[in-house]
Structures are given as C-alpha cells and as structure tokens.
Amino acid sequence: MTKILQTRIPYDPTQPAALPGISPLAMEDWLKPDDAALAQIAERDRLLRDQREEVLYLEPDAMPAACELLELVLNHLWGGAPSQVQRADGEVVRVDMADPLGTLGRITQQDFCLLQKSAAEHVLTGAVVCFPASWMLSEKAGRSLLGIHDPVAEYQKDIARRVQRLFDGVQPGRPLWRFNSLWYRDATLFQPRRTDARRAPEGAASAPFLRSEHQSILRLPQSKAVVFAIHTYVLSRADVMRLWS
Predict the structure, then answer these.
(1) What band does 202 get if pLDDT is binned at 50, 70 and 90?
(2) In which element (H, E) is residue 92 found?
(3) Contact in structure between 13 and 176 (CB atoms under 8 Å)
(4) 5-14 burial string, b = 16+ CB within 10 Å, else e?
(5) pTM of the full predicted structure?
(6) Domain residues of the chain, as ranges?
(7) What is the DSSP letter of 147?
C-alpha cells in the first residue's frame, strides 16, 4: 500500500455534503497545492509511466478542448505558455501539446475530466484521472453525466437535472466547487473498482483514513467544454480528529 497523506485540509470534511452542494470558488484558489503535493505528483508520474491506459483517455474530437485546458493551466500557474515548466520538486517537464492531458497529469496535483455537450447532456470526452476513488475510467469514458453516476443511489433524476443545469450555467473564470468524503481502510490513491464490484462498508468508527475530494467545475471559453477538476485529500483519523473534533 502506497501511503501518501495530507496533514491539513482547507474545509471540514466531516460535515454533510449533500448533492450537488455547490458553492462559488475564487479563481485564485482553483489549483492550490497542499502539503502532500510533491508525493502525489511523484505518484502521478509513476502511474502515467506504468499504467497510462488506465488513467488517461481522450477522444480525437476533444483534442482542441484538452489543449485549451493545458494552456489555461499553464497561464494560471506559470503566467504564460512556456515550452517547459519546473515543478516544485525541481523536475523539468516538457510541455507537449500533442499530449495535453499527459502533460497536465505531470504538472499538477489535480485530476481533470473534460465534459462536452452532446444533445441534452454533457459527455465525458477526455480525462486524466490518476486517483480514482472506487471507479474505473474505462467504464465512464464516453458516457453522459447520468451514465457516469448510474451506480450512485443518491444521483436520482431530480439531482441529475440540477447537476446538468449547473454544467449548462457555469461560466469561464467563475468556477464552482463541492466536496465529498468517505472513510477508507486503505490510503492508496489509485483505487479503481469495477461498477459490479461491491465496496465493503467502512464506517467512521473503524476505518483509519478519511478520503475527501475537492471537486470544481469551470467552463473553457473557446471550446465551451466543462472542466471537472478533482483534488484528492487522504488524512489519518488522528489528523481529522485533531482538526475537526
């Protein structure tokens, strides 16, 4: 088990987070690193090197949106569109516009999903997801919002309509965010699980790790694609109790 833990989290993950539970997010807070950033980025490097097909997906028609997302992140974090960037760990990463999601996966701590409107719903057309929490990218690729959330009991039709309205209404430069949190016995960040594989119950009274995703949505101005960014936190029970008891 690869154990990479944060010791802090900028919100209270023990509070109920009802669906969709969306709040405004300041653009300057969109991709903030934390105290586990270096270790998480190293793990992302490993996964993209050794298990790329499991963590990256891009439809050919989504290439322009993926390039636009990479350019947005480069401008947001480095103030321009350089040919290479130096990460906080000192590693220099070449910016490869022919592999925009692969590049993104190596220069940030966050996972990214691209969703583009098709008929009445947004469809997952590209993603770099190194830290799936009990789901598999291969099962979600090319599916609509409703199809992606099919196994989630709380994601009923009224919630699905509200989430679709959020995706329709989100604006460039004005991200929105929510969070989820679940107790886990295993702190490993890469936890794919098939839809038909049952997840053992892990109550707050016994599981040693709290896993929480800071999830944000933002519209790209050119392609109009929606970016769903996921910042994964995993904290020990002791740190959760220290922070929020």
Answers:
(1) low
(2) strand 92-94
(3) no
(4) bbeebeeebe
(5) 0.92
(6) 23-244
(7) H
Write out pLDDT tens, residues 111-154: 999 999 987 789 999 999 999 998 999 999 988 877 675 655 55
Element (H, E) at 179: strand 176-184
What is the torsional sign of CA 86, 92, 94, 100?
negative
Question: How many CB atoms lie under 10 A from the CB of residue 100?
Answer: 26
Which SS3 state, helix, strand or coil, does residue 100 take?
helix
Tell me the per-residue pLDDT of 27-76, one tens digit each, with 9 for 90 and over: 999 999 999 999 999 999 999 999 999 999 999 999 999 999 999 999 99
First to last CA, the chain: 27
CA 60 to chain centre: 21
User: What are the distances in angstroms from CA 159 to CA 176, 181, 200, 228?
Assistant: 16, 18, 25, 17
